[in-house]
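User: When convenient, might I ask for sequence and structure tokens for a protein?

AI:
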Amino acid sequence: MISSEILKQIRRIHLVSSRMATSSLAGEYHSLFKGKGVVFEELREYQPGDDVRNIDWNVTARSSRPFVRQFVEERELTVLIMLDISPSLSFGTGRCLKSRTAAEVAALLAGAALRNNDKVGLLLFTDRIERYLPPKKGDRYLFKMIREALCLQPVGRGTDISGALEYMNRVMKRSAVVFLISDFTSPEFSLSLTRSQARHDLVAVTITDPAEINLPEVGLIRLEEPETGVKVMIDTDDPAVRRRYHRNGTLRREARRALFRSTGTDLVELVSGSSYLQTLVDFFRKRGRRLRR
């Protein structure tokens, strides 16, 4: 049974995401993912006569052999939202938890795709696959996806992005646009990311809380790692503690950026509790200009 408060949240997110998806985001989404009329189908080794503009330079550099991307004409796209619902997203120091921001962003991207007449699916994961909704169309389906994202109680206690990507590659037989939304607190997943990027148009969306980079001065506090249960007491009034905390948070962020650069995966960085529409619009615009060059 869904509580009245949760139902209000679902309806609000559904309404807001539908409105936002018809705004400037919808136009940027359409021009970016439908502009060429073709979608990526597969990656194969370069053969004499192939158009050099289709060479995938990231894969070529890693393999020391030239690879090209093959495209097929496509009037309708398939979009998959991969949404991390692990305990590490149940954290927030602003107006909402990271999980709430992640669900809102998932709804917005799904709404933009549906307004573009694309099919949209949802994959919820932790350290296991929690729920998979195959790609379909329809506004009622968007409502169902938001309900699942907000209400599903996960069984898993950790995060396995590699496992989620491998599952996605098995169920998505054809190339798709895949939005991977997470805080990326997960064991090594670079190999699965590379494989997925070669088959699909993969975009990583990171959700970070401001307090994960800058520790507020609030005296003695007990921190608990949500996925392991490890607890530690720290003095946030100590400048040295805050400096180490900031340095560690910055190093994690930079390592994450380097990983996505090395695999050729586009990255959108969002801060929980802040406005994200303009950030997404700006990302789509920059990505569109880059792909058209």
